[in-house]
Amino acid sequence: MNGTITPSTQYLDVPGGRLAYDDTRQGAGTPVVLLPGMLDSRRAYRHLHPLLTVAGRRVITMDLRGFGESSIVWDDYSPSAVATDVLALLDHLGIERAVLVGQSYTGATVVKLAGDAPQRVAGIALIDAFVEQRANALMKGVMAVMGAAMVRWPAVWGYYLRKMAFPGPRPADLDTYVDGLVAALHTPGRRTATRGHVNGDSAPIGWSAAVRCPALVLMGSKDPDFPRPEAVADLQAEKLGARKIMIEGSGHYPMADNPQAVADALLPFLAELA
């Protein structure tokens, strides 16, 4: 990752399928689990991962159900189901407590797990998540149309990533990375997984009320997924009793377009938890 040695892929069999993950194994403080967003792979953190490991953190990344190197066909792709996978992975690795970082779709996952298993979660960080967003009828309609289009035409996902998701700086490897994601959507069975993600509840209302651990909300100031990104971050911070940090100039994936700013926000938060 970014000139550093990439941890080798490992696998965990759980009811319903196989999960792919990697683990640096070594590092100070509470382990950090990084979860990618919808239709993405754990390589979404390829630019942030080395910054955290160089700082001495133990970092674990996991592919979601249906994507990356995890198995494709499952009976449930929701953020809640992914939360059970994270818990199974912590059990497998013998980790009693971890800090969970969820991006976009998996912001709901880390909130769910923090509420359901507080003894296992030392803290959570949300990166451009949809948690606590009550969409109006127009927005729901737009999302439904976009979701259906991505299921049928994978190139729509590629267009979003290339033309919309990065309104500010673009990672140097963006085109190559997006080519890989779009190609993956053509894999047999992936349409079912795509539909499962698109239909998952990534914007739950009320889950934050059960969270008692420290929380951090990170949001790209130019995230195209939200008409007013800072207002979304303010609401999430209020509901979670969290600190809010805006990543200036970033779009929906600040860990890719401004990984240093994300690391500069995450590392003090991790140090406080330690």
From TrEMBL:
<protein>
    <submittedName>
        <fullName>Hydrolase</fullName>
    </submittedName>
</protein>
<dbReference type="GO" id="GO:0016787">
    <property type="term" value="F:hydrolase activity"/>
</dbReference>
<dbReference type="InterPro" id="IPR000073">
    <property type="entry name" value="AB_hydrolase_1"/>
</dbReference>
<dbReference type="Pfam" id="PF00561">
    <property type="entry name" value="Abhydrolase_1"/>
</dbReference>
<dbReference type="InterPro" id="IPR050228">
    <property type="entry name" value="Carboxylesterase_BioH"/>
</dbReference>
<feature type="domain" description="AB hydrolase-1">
    <location>
        <begin position="31"/>
        <end position="174"/>
    </location>
</feature>
<keyword id="KW-0378">Hydrolase</keyword>
<dbReference type="InterPro" id="IPR000639">
    <property type="entry name" value="Epox_hydrolase-like"/>
</dbReference>
<dbReference type="InterPro" id="IPR029058">
    <property type="entry name" value="AB_hydrolase_fold"/>
</dbReference>
